[in-house]
Design brief:
The complex is a heterodimer of chains A (157) and B (90). Chain A is mainly alpha-helical and 157 residues long. Chain A is 64% helix and 0% strand. Chain A has four helices and no strands. In chain A, α3 runs antiparallel to α4. The mean pLDDT of chain B is 85. Classes of the chains: A mainly alpha (157), B mainly alpha (90).
C-alpha cells in the first residue's frame, strides 16, 4: 500500500487524534449516551486504518508495535472476566457496585457500577483486536507481492 | 429419477414454508414479551443506567457479551493463523 498525497497526510496529521478522543469519549460514556465498548473500540480502530491508508504500509509497519495492541486485548479480556467473576457469591456477572438512581445523584462513577468498567474493558479489547486484524491483513497483502517492499512507488515522502 | 425426487422435495418444502406463513403473527403486532417491559421499567431504577442498551449488554445479558468477545478473539486468531509469517508463496 503506497502512501497517499501530501493533502491526505496533512489531514491525517490534523484530525486523526480527534478520532481517538472521540472514540474514547464514546467508550467511556457508554452508559449515558448511545455507544459503548464495541462502538468506541471500532472508532479507535479506525485510526489504525486511517494511518495505514494515509502513510502507507512501510512507515506504519516500522512505527507501530503490534505488541501494544496485543497487550490491549489481553488486558481488556482479563479485566472483563475479573469483573464478571467478582460478583460470584450471587451470580456470574452480578453488578455488585450498582446503586439505585436515587442514591447515585453524584460521584465520578455513578450507580452503573461494573457496566461502565466493563464497557471500558471491552472497548480496549475491541480496539486491540480490530487494529491487529487490520495490521495482520495488511501484512498478508504484502506477503504475496511480487516486487519487494522497498521498491514500492508512490508520492514523495 | 433423481431429478423427480428433488423436484418433489422442493415442492414439499415450499408447501411447508407457505403453510408456515399462516402461523406467523402479523407485522407490527409482536408477541407479548414480558422481558422487554421489565428492562424498560427497571433498568433506570436498578442500576441507574441512562442507556438501556448498555445496561442490557453488560449487565442483564453479560453472558452474551462473553460470546461476542470470543467471536472477535476467534476472528483475530483465524486471521493470524492464516496470514502467519513464513508461509510459502503459492
Amino acid at each position: 500500500m503506497n502512501p497517499l498525497s501530501v493533502v491526505v497526510r496533512t489531514v491525517c496529521d490534523l484530525f486523526a487524534w480527534f478520532m481517538i478522543v472521540f472514540g474514547v469519549n464514546v467508550l467511556l460514556h457508554g452508559y449515558v449516551t448511545p455507544g459503548g465498548g464495541f462502538q468506541g473500540g471500532a472508532i479507535i480502530a479506525t485510526f489504525t486504518a486511517f494511518l495505514l491508508v494515509a502513510y502507507g504500509g512501510k512507515r506504519v509497519a516500522a512505527r507501530v508495535n503490534n505488541k501494544l495492541f496485543d497487550l490491549f486485548e489481553e488486558i481488556g479480556l482479563i479485566v472483563f472476566f475479573i469483573l464478571a467473576f467478582l460478583g460470584f457469591p450471587i451470580t456470574f456477572f452480578f453488578n455488585f457496585m450498582a446503586r439505585p438512581l436515587a442514591e447515585s445523584a453524584s460521584g465520578i462513577l455513578p450507580g452503573v457500577g461494573t457496566v461502565a468498567l466493563m464497557s471500558a474493558a471491552v472497548g480496549l479489547e475491541v480496539t486491540g483486536a480490530l487494529s491487529l486484524i487490520i495490521l495482520t491483513m495488511h501484512k498478508g497483502i504484502r506477503m504475496f507481492k511480487v516486487e519487494p517492499l522497498e521498491q514500492e512507488t508512490g508520492h514523495e515522502r | 429419477m433423481k431429478k423427480t425426487v428433488f423436484i418433489a422435495a422442493a415442492i414439499l418444502l415450499g408447501a411447508f414454508i407457505t403453510g408456515a406463513l399462516d402461523v406467523v403473527h402479523p407485522f407490527g403486532d409482536p408477541l407479548e414479551v414480558p422481558m422487554d417491559d421489565y428492562f424498560i421499567a427497571n433498568a433506570l431504577n436498578d442500576i441507574s443506567a441512562e442507556n438501556i442498551v448498555t445496561a442490557i449488554v453488560f449487565d442483564y445479558r453479560g453472558f452474551d457479551t462473553i460470546g461476542e468477545a470470543a467471536v472477535l478473539f476467534t476472528a483475530l486468531t483465524a486471521v493470524s493463523v492464516l496470514l502467519r509469517e513464513g508461509r510459502k508463496k503459492p
